[in-house]
């Protein structure tokens, strides 16, 4: 009776736990920790969305069970968003389903379409649910490069030729969490052609579609002709409208995949609270100036962070999209790996970041920095990091043995 349950055995210890525990200890000791670890938006939900939630919640009928695939008006609103934003036509009845955030949708679709032993292709590094949703469902995961370029395409070709059994599904996520990579439409064209040729399902995570900072506007894979033959795409209200705790997302695309997800959800939930769904309709159909304001906010924070880190001697690529900076560990500390470096940064600079290894073993050379504090706090963070890096040149040499325990 002491043996670990089968599905739990396949899940490694949560790698963020060490940093989270150290952060909790520091806060319990009264220390001021600037938390840039979790991608948890700090801005309030726009008032017109909250007002619609309150209005609807005052109707007693709205407190009854909802529907697991989403109320019709919400599915129509998501279809309208795709038509306006991407020029993609969706049937709200057969090609859209509402989810309890994109994470739930990804995990439940993995459970719906996976047979034990299936091979799934997942970028490494990537958001944990991309691989662990399938691992929980009994699949074997094969890692591919995370970059939207020829390296990924060549890896896909090798995977089809050398995997047994042949891969059944592929995950793509652009703009990417954690790397902030941004794909172009031509790359999706290659992905769709490859997947159709080899009869592989594609699950696209588009949760950060509206967080972009330049002329490159993130596309949808569903813009490619024939994509709906093999692809489904997940979006989320969490980042676009600062609604993370509301847990509202969507899947859209291939009718067979949408039907599979809706069917398994019908056994598991009654859908989100109806007032949340109605408020989400107001968000999608209402004024969108709040989305542009959100982009400006994250762009300003990005610029403050990247400039401040450069002044500290830490060169970090400026992300074109997403709410994250994917930061290579400074060379003097590279031997530590991402967990020990994150713990050291917390202990010395009082700044919390996410260890890159939490997103896959190929992320261990980086940490993820989330733009979830205001510019004043970000400047404070970069000043503290600068002091840590300047004072730590001698300390770094002393920490030359790998994986030093920092306690």
Task: Explain what the structure shows.
This protein has helices at residues 6-9, 17-28, 47-57, 72-86, 101-113, 128-136, 150-162, 185-198, 255-268, 274-285, 289-311, 337-349, 375-391, 393-398, and strands spanning 34-35, 96-99, 119-123, 140-144, 169-173, 201-205, 231-236, 249-253, 324-328, 351-352, 354-355, 366-370. It is α/β, with parallel strands linked by helices. The protein has 2 domains: 6-44 and 290-398, Aspartate Aminotransferase, domain 1; 63-285, Aspartate Aminotransferase, domain 2. The longest helix is centred in the last third of the chain and has 23 residues, at 289-311. 49% of the residues are buried.
Q: What is the fold named in CATH at topology level of the largest domain?
A: Aspartate Aminotransferase, domain 2
CATH architecture label name of the largest domain: 3-Layer(aba) Sandwich
CATH class of the largest domain: Alpha Beta
Low-confidence stretches: 400-407
Query: In what range is the share of β-strand residues?
Result: 5-15%
| Fraction of residues in H or I helices | 40-55%
Number of strands: 12
| Assembly category | single chain
How many structural domains in the coordinates?
2
Continuous helix count:
14
């Amino acid at each position: 009776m002491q043996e670990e349950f089968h599905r739990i055995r396949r899940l490694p210890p949560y790698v963020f736990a060490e940093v989270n525990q150290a952060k909790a200890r520091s806060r319990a000791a009264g220390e001021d920790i600037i938390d840039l670890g979790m991608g948890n938006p700090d801005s309030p939900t726009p008032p017109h969305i909250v007002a619609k939630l309150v209005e609807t919640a005052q109707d007693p009928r709205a407190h009854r069970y909802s529907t697991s695939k989403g109320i019709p008006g919400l599915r129509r609103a998501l279809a309208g968003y795709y038509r306006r934003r991407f020029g993609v036509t969706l049937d709200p009845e057969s090609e859209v389903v509402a989810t309890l955030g994109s994470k739930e949708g990804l995990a439940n679709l993995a459970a719906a379409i996976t047979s034990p032993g299936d091979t799934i292709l997942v970028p490494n590094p990537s958001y944990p649910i991309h691989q662990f949703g399938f691992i929980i469902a009994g699949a074997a995961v094969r890692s591919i490069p995370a970059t939207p370029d020829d390296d990924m395409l060549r890896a896909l070709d090798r995977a089809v030729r050398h995997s047994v059994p042949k891969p059944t599904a592929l995950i793509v996520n652009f703009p990417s969490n954690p790397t902030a990579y941004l794909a172009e439409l031509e790359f999706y064209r290659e992905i769709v052609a490859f997947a159709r040729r080899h009869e592989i399902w594609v699950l696209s995570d588009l949760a950060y579609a509206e967080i972009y900072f330049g002329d490159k506007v993130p596309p949808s894979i569903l813009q490619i002709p024939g994509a709906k033959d093999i692809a489904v795409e997940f979006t989320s209200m969490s980042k676009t409208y600062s609604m993370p705790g509301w847990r509202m997302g969507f899947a859209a695309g291939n009718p067979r995949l949408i039907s599979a997800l809706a069917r398994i959800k019908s056994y598991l939930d009654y859908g989100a609270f109806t007032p949340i769904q109605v408020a989400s309709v107001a968000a999608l159909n209402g004024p969108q100036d709040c989305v542009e304001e959100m982009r400006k906010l994250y762009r300003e924070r990005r610029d403050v962070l990247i400039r401040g880190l450069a002044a500290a001697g830490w060169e970090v690529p400026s992300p074109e999209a997403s709410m994250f900076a994917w930061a290579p560990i400074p060379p003097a500390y590279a031997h530590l790996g991402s967990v020990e470096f994150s713990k050291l940064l917390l202990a010395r600079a009082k700044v919390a970041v996410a260890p890159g290894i939490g997103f896959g073993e190929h992320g261990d050379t980086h940490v993820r920095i989330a733009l979830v504090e205001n510019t004043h706090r970000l400047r404070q963070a970069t000043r503290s990091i600068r002091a840590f890096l300047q004072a730590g040149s001698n300390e770094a040499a002393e920490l030359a043995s790998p994986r030093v325990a920092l306690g």
